[in-house]
Design a protein that fits this description.
The protein has 143 residues and is mainly α. It contains five helices and no strands. Helix 2 packs antiparallel against helix 3. The chain is elongated. The model has no long low-confidence stretch (mean pLDDT 89).
């Protein structure tokens, strides 16, 4: 007796929301890597090689907020507080939070079996995502 293959082609599976979210998870991870690399290279170009230690450069790379540079030997904070870096920090925050919330929803779906419980956990996750993203973007742009 031979077993049937469980692999279906894309036309048989269809293009649904779950596939879109699977694709979003992969692409958002790549985008986060690109933004972190952009921030680290930007810091090195702006003089971090001589004015910051490795830990400060990494902290800048993962959240390019100019307040992370205030405690270093950087003499002028003006290039570090431009709109470009605020947009970079906002994009990194929004990508990371939505990527993480999607992972949380996927894990919660494995353990919550009732449809009502899944609905509640998803709405709670969306509420937390929106609330924390608004607070985070507000802090980035007003700091």
């Amino acid at each position: 007796m031979t077993a049937k293959s469980k692999t279906l082609s894309l036309t048989q599976r269809g293009f649904n929301f779950e596939m879109l979210m699977w694709l979003f998870t992969r692409l958002s991870a790549l985008a986060m890597y690109a933004l972190i690399l952009f921030a680290i290279l930007g810091a090195l170009i702006m003089g971090a090689r001589n004015q910051m230690n490795f830990a400060d450069v990494m902290r800048w790379g993962f959240m390019p907020n100019y307040t992370h540079v205030q405690s270093t030997d950087v003499p002028d904070l003006t290039p570090w507080s431009t709109t470009l870096w605020r947009f970079t920090a906002s994009a990194l925050l929004l990508l990371a939070s939505s990527h993480g919330i999607h992972g949380l929803v996927v894990i919660a779906d494995d353990y919550i079996v009732r449809p009502r419980g899944r609905l509640i956990s998803r709405w709670l996750s969306i509420f937390l995502l929106v609330t924390m993203s608004i607070i985070g973007v507000y802090v980035i742009w007003t700091a």
